[in-house]
């Protein structure tokens, strides 16, 4: 295994002090076991220190000389700037003279991990403190316990039934699965019977510790590990905050899990119409003016949920939105499914929690090193009801969670804290290079922020996460399907998603230079074939307006009836127009419902869905039922409609 390097940056404007401290620290550590690869380096000014923190992702801690009389150096500015740049750093103050216990010194104490006294020159002691803190921060309590348990080679007299893989090993039929997955995949697949591995449903041991470390890392008061993705995380929060009939303000084009949460919680949704970039068929953020108006007009709303950043990397200027909601006592939930990395590089900050959100849900698995379905729920709500949350969390969580997923969240957090900044800096460099080289093909063009924003959100302070790259392929002479097929068949490249004229790439901390080179090679070769650009078939206009007749929950729980989407002439079935949908109809990807339960079906909706089904055969259409070849939608019957409470228009 590669050994880590942990650089400790010592900052002093006093050249003599800097030199003697560096010398003293290096001498003190010589000959000591050094598992974290601690090295010391110096900076002679605030500016030099900040530059080093910026460019050197291996710096893990900073020791700043600080004089109480401030004649020599006031470390407060540096500490403030270092915290803002890299919140995961360990910060220490080397105090000269006697500390005065004024408010400003208290402020300093709140911001740093600890103090040393310059005159004592106890370098060995300082080094021990720094090392102990690195040890504490980089711990993986759950993963360690899991490894320890596996190493004990205990006999399994409990679930799962494969019994540490013994049911598969040596089988003439299924041994192949065992060898493909590897021994430890089965040995580490354990159950709640194993006391020393704690319980996800009532954590008091190593899971509790791992969650506490995650809360600290992500800037939350509490963090919960969710093993059924952000899809479940959103539902848990809704059920905690909302009782049936409570108003929820939500981006109409939120992920389908949010709309499922509305059904489960029995919420009264107030849909906020998001911006749409029709040129590229992309949903964007809800305009600020729409959000502010909704908050103003619905002071009785209990919660607001927005997606930031979106699938395409667009993120809100959240602070003023959250502040406006809080003035009305509305709780704010931010779906950060695509933004779990944000805390670990200033290019992506502020995060939702840093902007004041009460809850943030993150698919750690989408962008950091966690296994699929492994997500986190971060909580900063000052009125948090831990008991109610726990009940709802447990309602949605299997009593047999996958332990390797929990371990992957523990490890994913460790990595983000210890090397997230360095890896994200590399990812950002690769993204910049990729953008430039893709544009240099003269055929493919990366959409920049200005291209992605529709007119109505141009002045909303929206920013772009540059690790999400949307490429306009319309000059390539290929349809999106042909382009994706060629990339896959000839070049072994699989992209994240597409629209009728774009494909999207997701760069993460796992993106390597080799992958970038291979992708660029593929794009250059495709570009070199100089095909004549073709007219691309536009997907029918995405629909916006949502006329809701009944609460989604009321419509969903109707028996309903199936009605065909097309008539005998294969035209949109006119009988469906004006009927109320009972299910969610969701083109996937991107997973944004075209119809929600309780919504009146319009000709526009139907044309959009049928057009999509014809032109995008690869898009799944969740919610559509096939009666033979006939696509149908479940709608509320006329009799059922009479018995439901009609919502005010
Ligand atoms: C905005 C958004 N929220 C939530 C989810 C669900 O996340 P998960 O796959 O972790 O369940 C997705 C998935 O694509 C998403 O795009």
Give a brief rundown of this model.
This protein is of the alpha/beta class and 649 residues long. A hairpin with a 3-residue loop joins strand 19 and strand 20. Helix 1 packs across helix 5 (123-137) and helix 10 packs across helix 15 (386-396).
Bound molecules: pyridoxal-5'-phosphate
The N- to C-terminal Cα distance equals 63 Å
**Could you give the count of β-strands?**
25
Radius of gyration: 28 Å
Across the major sheet, the strand order is 6-15-14-13-11-7-8
Strand content: 15-25%
Sheet with the most strands? 7 strands, mixed
What is the helix content?
A: 25-40%
Q: Outline, from the CA principal axes?
A: globular
The CATH H-level homologous superfamily of the largest domain: Type I PLP-dependent aspartate aminotransferase-like (Major domain)
List keywords for this structure.
seven-stranded mixed beta sheet, alpha/beta, Aspartate Aminotransferase, domain 2, 649 residues, five-stranded parallel beta sheet, binds pyridoxal-5'-phosphate, 5 domains, 16% strand, Rossmann fold
